[in-house]
Amino acid sequence: MSLWFLLSLAFVQHAYYAVTVVALAAGAVGYFVVLRRQAFAAHAIGHVGFAGAAGAVLLGLSPVLGLLGFCVGAGVLIGLGGATLDDRDAVVGVTLTAALGLGVLFISLYSGYADATYSILFGQILGVTWGDVVLVASVSLVVLVALSFIYRPLLFVSVDPASAVARGLSERALSLAFLSLLALTTVVAIQIVGVLLVFSLLVAPAAAAEQLTNRPRRALLLSMAIALVSSWLGIFLGVWLGGPVSFWITALAATSYLGARLGAFGKRRETAMGVA
Questions:
Q1: Direct distance between the N- and C-terminal alpha carbons of the chain, in angstroms, rounded to an integer
Q2: Which of 45, 163, 166, 204 has the most CB atoms at less than 10 Å from its CB?
């Protein structure tokens, strides 16, 4: 079976369409996750979403509905939870543990075979339908448009919160808006790589971009590009060589960060030797 034949299959093309829009949203939002040091919140929201998906399956509903409700609810709760980093971390930790407990309860009460929740855990990129593509594209577009509107004030309050507040910006309101966008991005990214690996798609490309440049706009675009290339190559390797696509995507994203980190270290070392 030739590679071109595999790439011409409808489910592979659907995967590429879906992963393109998700990678762009994840790369853009992930930049602010890394900039604002909210990786723990991103990790927690995905796991909270699994509890929602399990609850929806228990009630006979679509797991995506539970995923959406719990992720957005967690984002709002974390955004309202505290203005300081210590307060926010405490709220994230309590929210995460409570949701994991609910997830265990929902799964134990469900007597059927929860294949839907299994796909939420590990992703189902090669199983997305055209309807799924439309859904993730719509949500990703909403995220990107909303992020473009709050880009400047969010960047200001992320880099220099004291000055931003003095200028009249509301740190809590912007945090709430951003965490809501993070929750929506998590929902669509989980469709691609699953709850257990969504953290890497949101954080690794942005962390790599941060190592390569300190210019915000360039770093954001670079984060989107790394997420996109990692996702495209991940599908290609999964289809051609075999193995879970989510593994390939996360492995490539993690490798990009490792390469960027080593490159930045080498550059700093050369600069130090030059000065010496």
A1: 58
A2: 45
Indicate if the alpha-carbon torsion angle 113, 184, 33, 41 is positive or negative: negative
The type of residue at 232 is W
Does the pTM exceed 0.85?
no
Cα gap 138→12, rounded to integer Å: 20
Query: Any residues with CB less than 8 A from the CB of 240 and at least 6 apart, and which?
Result: 3, 6
pLDDT at 273 over 70: no
Instruction: Specify the CATH number for 3-275; select among 3.20.20.100, 1.10.3470.10, 1.20.910.10, 3.30.1490.20.
Output: 1.10.3470.10
Tokens of 66: 């539970």
Higher pLDDT, 198 or 222: 222
- The 3-class SS string of 195-260 reads CCCHHHHHHHHHHHHHHHCCCHHHHHHHHHHHHHHHHHHHHHHHHHCCCCHHHHHHHHHHHHHHHH
